[in-house]
Write a structure and sequence with these properties.
about 240 residues; mainly alpha; Arc Repressor Mutant, subunit A; Four Helix Bundle (Hemerythrin (Met), subunit A); 2 domains; two-stranded antiparallel sheet; 10 helices; about 70% helix; DNA binding
Length: about 240
Amino acid sequence: MKIADPAWRSGASVACDKIGRAIVAGRFPEHTRLPKEAELAAEFAISRNTLREAMKALAAKSLIEIAPRRGTLVLPRSRWNILDRDVAEWAAQIFINDPGFMNELLAFRRLLEPAAAEAAALHATPDEAADIQAAYQEMERAVEIDELEVWVHVDIEFHKAVFRASHNRFIQSVADSVIHALRTSFLAVSNQPSSYAQNLQNHKILADAIERKDSKAAKLTAEKLIETTADVQRKMLR
């Protein structure tokens, strides 16, 4: 089922999304030039002004480089701003079955999430620890609901609560940027038989460790969570 573009999104935002996805998917290969402005505007059924705004946004995400009188160059993947929210989401959705990309995302999670859990155990306020426990309770309830989107939503809310409780602006900023990529990863892994229920107890152990301010246990449990995900991912990508 095709989901309509949200009414609040501008024409340039929608165009940026469509062209950005096309670039990430390889329809417009890296190191090549995009079609001329008139052709591209006609292909995506948008005005030239809307296209120009979309091009500015894509250039800011480092997907393209606009060179006057020389055309618009699609930049190599190594230069894409993968921490941009849109780019991270497009890449995660398009490369969800790509072992290389998914392993990179997993490696990034190994750097981010244990550090966030450790910091949360050290710095969480009582209210923030309670928010993490409340998020876990929602995860428990979600097990009773046979709806993948619900499972993933509450899982994401749990991790967002941990990131907030870290009181580290760098962790929070990076996490906010890649949360959509994590969501796509969670969707893929949680869709595997029993994977969600299997990992639920680890979330409880993590919530309890943060609540009692046991930073070592929080870090180790976050690492265990990721390794459980890694096992499921390896089976999924065979």
